[in-house]
Structures are given as structure tokens and as C-alpha cells.
Amino acid sequence: MTAPTTLAELTGDYTLDPAHSRIGFVARHAMVTKVRGAFNEFSGTVHIDGADVSRSSATVTIKVDSIDTRNADRDAHLRTNDFLQVADYPEITFTSTDIKQTGEDSYEVTGDLTIKGVTRSVTIPLTLEGAARDPFGNNRVGFEGSTTINRSDFGVTWNAPLETGGVLVGDKVTLEFEISAIRQA
């Protein structure tokens, strides 16, 4: 069987493959550099309707305690009440409310993002990177994209002033998505 080549051929229900996907973030640190991180545990589903993309949908659930910035002390601080308050809010969720095709392989996925019990509508521009049958017989589809949010909009407001002016942590956070999903039988 050959790989799907049209949106209609991609119609179906998919499950995110966390082993081949990444949900990451980038935030400004000390006004001079950026800190990159990711969440290592998440799950999600995607329904693709190739005949009418507006009937497509996506959901993602992220385990907040899986945050990983490659620095154990920073990760521990991010889990506290200063930032993500993992004891009270163990998950970040996203549920799509609208999906539009904006180009041949580009889409805008709008949905409800909930962080620390605060829900805001966000739009994520995504590009269809491809579709293929893997060596194990799975039909896969891949999407990539990113969007920027203000962390303070979600109640993540801790900061520390810098001696030279400015603050330790920037308010803007870029969310990055590299998604591989497997079509279900």
C-alpha cells in the first residue's frame, strides 16, 4: 500500500505517538537568552475529516510533572506554586474548537488551552509535514507548528527583578509542536 497523498485519504482517527512527537516551549531568561524545554508525557487524539476539514478535531493532555528543561533545579521550581503548581493542576489540556485550512498544507487549529485552571482560546498554525506507512504497517501523519502565549494570562506570574533592569523570566512563551500521529484501525 502506498502512502496517502490527499487530505481525503488521511480521513480517520489518530493517536499521538509520544515517542516520535515533541511538545516544547521557549521562554526568555534574564533578558539575554532563551530557555528551551519540553513535556515528556502527553497523550492526544486527532480526527481528520478530509471532506470537510472544519469537522476535524484534536485533543491533547500534558502531564505537567513531566516538564524537562535539562536542569533538575529549574524543573523542580517550575513545578511549584511559583509557576505551574503541579500539585493542584497536574495537567495542561487543549481541545480544538475550530480547524481551518489556510493553504495547500497549512492549517489553523483554534481551541481551548487550559493551564492552572485558566482556559483561554489560542490558535496554532500547523503545517502538514507528510504522511507515510512506517515499517511496522502504521499509517502516520506529521504536523509541525508553534504559537506564542502570555504566561500571565494563565496565572503564571512569578518573576524576579534584575539588578540591571528587566525581569528574570519573560512573559511570552512560545509553544512548539512536532506531532507524529498513528491512524487507528
TrEMBL record:
List residues traversing the bilayer.
none
Pfam families per UniProt: YceI
Family per similarity comment: Belongs to the UPF0312 family.
Give the organism the record lists.
Gandjariella thermophila
Xref: InterPro entries: Lipid/polyisoprenoid-bd_YceI, TTHA0802/YceI-like_sf
The UniProt record lists the Lipid/polyisoprenoid-binding YceI-like domain at 13-182
Q: Which domain of life is it from?
A: Bacteria
The protein's name in its UniProt record: Polyisoprenoid-binding protein
